[in-house]
């Protein structure tokens, strides 16, 4: 049973801050050092000082110091009534089609992500979980949102809140990417009860924020004195609304000893049908675009991904041969995912890269931007770039429902939920 409850959210005082766009930021794990510094400079009360503090010797106690100082000064205020919060984002996908995603924020009762009604979809790293746990211990507050998804063809939340979204939102801002964010506070007990009853029998899948969820579980086990540690702040979005976009996370491979592109391509030919997009220096742009278009057309066909390797004036699309494909057909959904095929048959078996490591470790780096991946190879920062199609949401939930998990960073949910809209102080 998935259980949610309303809570007294901590929020920035708009009276004190003015434009809240100056104090919010994306989730900590997508902020580069360059953007970390930009957010530091943007406003003295920017949430970056809480979620990604850079001030030593103890960045966690520094973050906690800011949090409680801002509460004392009234920069942060706490809502008097227990509430859930309706959160809407309006954005342009690939700079073209406008999309709207809408969900609600509440406290979710913590469950085992392997067997409960709240299911993890991806494996996690140990270091980010430990990092978020230390921050949680210091601040005793949920500072960022966990994105979860569920299926509800009846669109219950939309029906219950259709009048609410006609009202002026509690918060309206446009972030640094041009994405529009709106937040409404819901205190009506009838609406809250209706949403809670709807979600009770649903399976909830964690889409983004696996490390925050893992740290909340660890904090619950560490600190059992308060009932508040049994809950974590979470955002819930209905898959049937089709508002959220899942982008792929492309793989950049670097620091391989003795890598030879010709030998590697010979090995690939044993497993994959390879389509080439050769180019002259003047025709590189055209070849790249042709490869990306051709790859996108294969989204309905399993087990195809793009490749760009150092030392070759050529782009490639790799499509699994029928023999290998038939072998996977007898296995579960996880093994047949493009990202799993890439990791198991290519990265581990042929390149011996092992699993994805943390930043600065191992041979694999990640990016949701295919152009960034390709540019890294051109500039010598990577030896190969593998370009993937996005994992379908149905595939991710099917894998999680079977009690399995995809490789780390198999999906990139977009748009990202802002940090700084609401916090949950754990009592």
Report what the structure shows.
The protein has 427 residues and is of the alpha+beta class. The chain has two domains: 4-246 and 413-425, no CATH class; 249-389, no CATH class. The protein is built from 15 helices and 21 strands. Strands 1, 4, 5, 6, 8, 9, 10, 11 and 12 form a nine-stranded mixed sheet that branches. Strands 15-17-16-19-14-18 form a six-stranded antiparallel sheet, with helices on both faces. Strand 4 and strand 5 form a beta hairpin. Helix 4 (59-73) packs parallel to helix 5 and helix 5 packs across helix 8 (210-222). The longest helix has 15 residues, at 59-73. The two termini are 23 Å apart. Mean pLDDT is 91; it is low at 357-361.
Lay out the secondary structure.
Blueprint: E1 4-5, E2 10-12, H1 14-17, H2 33-42, H3 48-51, H4 59-73, E3 76-78, E4 84-93, E5 97-109, E6 118-120, H5 126-139, E7 141-142, E8 146-150, H6 156-160, E9 171-174, E10 180-186, H7 189-200, E11 204-208, H8 210-222, E12 231-238, E13 245-247, E14 250-253, H9 261-268, E15 272-278, H10 284-297, E16 304-309, E17 314-320, H11 322-329, H12 333-336, H13 338-348, E18 364-367, H14 370-378, E19 384-388, H15 393-401, E20 412-414, E21 424-425
Parallel strand pairs: 6-11, 8-12
Antiparallel strand pairs: 1-5, 2-3, 4-5, 4-10, 5-12, 7-21, 8-11, 9-10, 13-20, 14-18, 14-19, 15-17, 16-17, 16-19
Helix pairs in contact: 4-5, 5-8
